[in-house]
């Protein structure tokens, strides 16, 4: 049976929630996160995007591109609640839901609770219900695999949908610019362009051996998507790879002890988040973003896992001591845990065996 996959992507989600809840922001360029002189944009309204404002852009740059930009503080609890409402709608159609973030998810509707064989109708119904329940718009991509569904959801944004049928896939992929391929990021796209690969057609012309030699294991994925193929299943139990917290400061940090104390505070928040998931991570990573936006990370792994705050803080001490003196002021600090213990190892540690 041919798979029927839908990718639902909310339109400018964080910013749209803010505009919904504050009528004064509607129709105006809005950036969620950061401020006029500090931080990074977490999300931008479509009015702001017209000026080139986008997520992950330094706030100072965003303000320069759009002098009338309005900055608002993020309200993650509100976004989570809206996301929960949206997923309740998804669940009316299928249990095969793979969330990618608060504002997007894959749905496998090959067999669905509504017994509707037409995936485009299901996508339209879901988008309609989302608007009726939340007042927000969503876009959708529909196809026979995740890669094509994800790619299609961008085509008629905002508040639209696009279907790529099996008979259309080959021609669609061949014409697709290489930077539009989901999974091919900016640096990789630039590398491909240096090899003369500008479109899906030129990517398809490359041998599997060439792609693996130039891009490693992921070369196999590039070989397949150039042919409109993607073997990945929609996985409801999508594994959490890492958990982290970070903070951007209103003034750059220079003092080593202050930097450590800020990381110690962040470790408390990290442990609270870890506790919710009942995870034990083996690898601790600290992230530092300097005043000029250069970022570095440093990590340390304990095979038995980080079990308490003392262990984390000792590692923070060790990692920071190996970085001093800092070459410039620090605007952001982050700390995270990854490389989680397997479930059976986790249980053994918790019951003291």
TrEMBL record:
GO terms for molecular function: DNA-directed DNA polymerase activity. Keywords: Cytoplasm, DNA damage, DNA repair, DNA replication, DNA-binding, DNA-directed DNA polymerase, Magnesium, Metal-binding, Mutator protein, Nucleotidyltransferase, Transferase. It comes from the Bacteria. Its cofactor is Mg(2+). Its EC number is 2.7.7.7. Binds 2 magnesium ions per subunit. SUPFAM superfamilies: DNA/RNA polymerases (SSF56672), Lesion bypass DNA polymerase (Y-family), little finger domain (SSF100879). It catalyses: DNA(n) + a 2'-deoxyribonucleoside 5'-triphosphate = DNA(n+1) + diphosphate. It is found in: Cytoplasm. It is an enzyme of class 2 (transferase). The record marks 14 as: Substrate discrimination. The active site is at 104. Residues 5-185 form the UmuC domain. The keyword Zinc does not apply. Poorly processive, error-prone DNA polymerase involved in untargeted mutagenesis. Copies undamaged DNA at stalled replication forks, which arise in vivo from mismatched or misaligned primer ends. These misaligned primers can be extended by PolIV. Exhibits no 3'-5' exonuclease (proofreading) activity. May be involved in translesional synthesis, in conjunction with the beta clamp from PolIII. NCBIfam families: PRK02406.1 (NF002677), PRK14133.1 (NF010731). This is DNA polymerase IV. It comes from Lacihabitans lacunae. The lineage of its organism: Bacteria, Pseudomonadati, Bacteroidota, Cytophagia, Cytophagales.
């Amino acid at each position: 049976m041919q798979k029927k996959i839908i990718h639902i992507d909310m339109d400018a989600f964080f910013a749209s929630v803010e505009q919904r809840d504050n009528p004064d922001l509607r129709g105006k360029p809005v950036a969620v996160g950061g401020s006029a002189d500090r931080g990074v944009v977490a999300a931008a309204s479509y009015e702001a995007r017209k000026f080139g404002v986008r997520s992950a852009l330094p706030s100072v740059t965003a303000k320069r591109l759009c002098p009338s930009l309005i900055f608002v503080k993020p309200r993650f609890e509100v976004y989570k609640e809206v996301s929960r409402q949206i997923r309740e709608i998804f669940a009316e159609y299928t249990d095969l839901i793979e969330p990618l973030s608060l504002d997007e998810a894959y749905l496998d509707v090959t067999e669905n609770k509504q017994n509707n064989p037409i995936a485009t109708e299901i996508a339209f119904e879901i988008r309609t219900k989302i608007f009726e329940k939340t007042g927000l718009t969503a876009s959708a991509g529909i196809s026979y695999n995740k890669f094509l569904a994800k790619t299609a959801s961008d085509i008629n944004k905002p508040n639209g949908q696009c279907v790529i049928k099996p008979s259309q896939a080959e021609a669609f992929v061949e014409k697709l610019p290489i930077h539009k391929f989901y999974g091919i990021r900016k640096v990789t796209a630039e590398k491909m362009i240096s090899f003369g690969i500008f479109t899906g057609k030129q990517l398809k012309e490359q041998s599997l051996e060439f792609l693996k030699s130039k891009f490693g294991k992921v070369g196999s994925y590039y070989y397949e998507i150039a042919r409109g193929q993607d073997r990945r299943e929609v996985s409801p139990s999508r594994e959490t790879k890492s958990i982290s917290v970070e903070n951007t400061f209103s003034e750059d940090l220079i003092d080593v002890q202050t930097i450590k104390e800020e990381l110690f505070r962040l470790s408390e928040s990290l442990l609270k988040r870890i506790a919710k998931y009942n995870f034990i991570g083996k690898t601790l990573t600290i992230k530092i973003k300097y005043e000029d936006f250069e970022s570095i990370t440093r990590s340390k792994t304990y095979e038995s896992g980080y079990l308490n705050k003392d262990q984390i803080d000792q590692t923070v001490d060790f990692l920071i001591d190996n970085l001093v003196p800092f070459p410039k002021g620090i605007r952001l600090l982050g700390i995270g845990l990854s490389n989680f213990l397997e479930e059976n190892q986790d249980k053994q540690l918790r019951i003291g065996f």
